[in-house]
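Write out the 3D structure for:
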Amino acid sequence: MTSTDVSKDAEGSGPSGYAAARLRLLTEEARTGPPRRAALAELTDEWLTGLFAAGAEGLRGVSLVAVGGYGRGELSPRSDLDLLLLHDGGDSKAVAALADRIWYPVWDLGLALDHSVRTPAEARRTAGEDLKVQLGLLDARHIAGDLGLTAGLRTSVLADWRNQAPKRLPELQELSAERAERQGELQYLLEPDLKEARGGLRDATILRAVAASWLADAPREGLDDARRRLLDVRDALHLTTGRATDRLSLQEQDQVAAELGLLDADTLLRQVYEAARVISYASDVTWREVGRVLRARAVRPRLRAMLGGGAKPTAERSPLAEGVVEQDGEVVLARAARPERDPVLPLRAAAAAAQAGLPLSLHAVRRMAASVRPLPTPWPAEAREQLVTLLGSGRPTVEVWEALEAEGLITHFLPDWERVRCRPQRNAVHIWTVDRHLIETAVRASEFTRRVHRPDLLLVAALLHDIGKGWPGDHSVAGEIIVKDVAARIGFDRDDVTVLSTLVRHHLLLVETATRRDLEDPATVRSVAEAVGSQGTLELLHALTEADALATGPAAWSSWRGSLVADLVKRVGAVLAGDDPAEPEAAAPTAEQERLAIEAIATGSPVLALRAQTEPPAEEQSPGEAEPLGVELLIAVPDQPGVLPAVAGVLAMHRLTVRTAELSTLDLPDGVEGAVLLLNWRVAAEYGSLPQAARLRADLVRALDGSLDIAGRLAERDAAYPRRRGVVAPPPRVTVHPAASRLATVIEVRAQDAPGLLFRIGRALEDASVRVRSAHVSTLGANAVDAFYVTGPEGAPLPGEEAAAVARKLEETLRG
């Protein structure tokens, strides 16, 4: 059925005929994308024309005008109808009656309607006061009635826009920046707003408005295709949800991908990100050009006066590097530059731009991309040095890198980049796509180049540490293989290639070990020393670890994590220097521990103390200033079953996050009878202030005597938590690490974080009749990774089969 057939089918049959024809059009599988949007607009035009004709009989000087997206002929299934009833100020009662004859049938069908009734003068005045109205009128399209009235409005609105552009475009840019701040960047969001986020459909419309001002025009290549892709995704979103929404929620992504014939939700997001990146880059270039034109207009009259009138000022060009100059606040190619003969020129220009903190000119990037030659293998020293200089330039690196990537120059130099480009990371901890995270890591690493002996290796490792993502299996293992090839191609020698591959293979080693293993255990320290191999590599790995975490997001790094990693690095450094880590000895109890233990025996109940922990002030801090690392919680309890789950449950009830936990039996002074369990835990409040110690103690007493139903209380709270539809967590996994310690069996639990998780684990381990020596708790986003050092009742590690059985039982409990 053609659009004409559909239109005829709707004629003379009123709203019901239009609704039926509309439904048939939207369910046609053969017609999607721009043809369907255009056909829907044409069908709607025909229906509204009929409504107008029926109500405007004998009425002159009136027209019906589509504005905004409808004016552009881009109707998505649930789009608003943006309509303007334009009149010449004649019979106001007749115009009002005509409006009712049009608006009410639209509302009766449940269609969203954005409507207004204005004279041309009123429309122009409103546009002058409201930028949104102005932008909508720039796309005004005649539907029915007095064509001359509509044409006159279009002409005057465009003239107004061009005359006022020097004043209104800066205002529009400011509003766009505020919206981007609120909505975020479409190319990085897991649940993006396809219209309002930066790089979305709203920005594409704004670029059309800027072009209509005649002050500047956006780079056209790929822009229409990017806009079409986002509109296609919005169409599919409307059809799958049945709602007028622009928010691509997690629970809808698989359905939307299927509607578009895509492999999966990740493929969908990657296409959305690629489209958003094109629009964002075009916006950056366009707004930069608008600023340049407006500055030139402001300066030109003064310059002409200084030059005596007729002479035209010449833009100053300042040399930056061989073949590269600065002009009008941008980096451009020198007149003598020959990119077709100089394969290093793109890297040299990029490094010069980043070092100067200036953007690369679009013309320069496109010229280099059109004529760039492949670099020899291995790269010449200059190319490698320019890449390192670019990576070490700090924050300006991001904008320059994006300019190169927009024209395909990054994948020209680093073909392996293609797999990580625009790749989403479905992890609440990560705030960037894989490729942007790698650049952010290099930016962070540039801050640490003064503290390592080989800053070039640090920067290249930062750029490539996650290059294995997108390949099957462990991305660190895949990355090690890729980096060996890439580093050799870039021109690093064999020893440097070995260091880079080690850094990539073990870029998670320090933080995972520091937060999940017992640093007092010699086996832990030796295993890290063996993996790292040298002091120089350890130094680089320490800096890379911090840069990686800082570039991941706020949840990935803290003073507490930093202090644990620094402690591990110190211990590993001692081993690499030739010191042999001594077997840990039971530390003598402190005076406070003895006091608590004696009080616990005397009262027959638990006693506890809370003490804030801080780190020494950093060099850049004021003297005496320190950052809190958490709160140390000391608990002494007469030896009895169920202590671990009881304490964990009480802490969960009070919304306290456990970071580390150590449990030991305390040797009491002579003359004091009884056994005391000592728990030394570090905790932090999820939000708000810490509860009073007296309240914690009272609840702990009740938990131990059985009068406090912890499981029931936590279940009630869990049931009250809002759940997000469509987010299905992977099942928990429990593994045994037999070689991680000679003193205990290490059982690692990976599960979805939830209130009371540590309580459930503690109760399961208690039921298995094992003793927990220490617990190392790590939470990244929604994922908990907890390691438990357990022994049998006699204090020895568990035999292999028994340890496996405990792990299986724990996993079954958590899955249940």
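The first strand starts at residue 62 and ends at 66.
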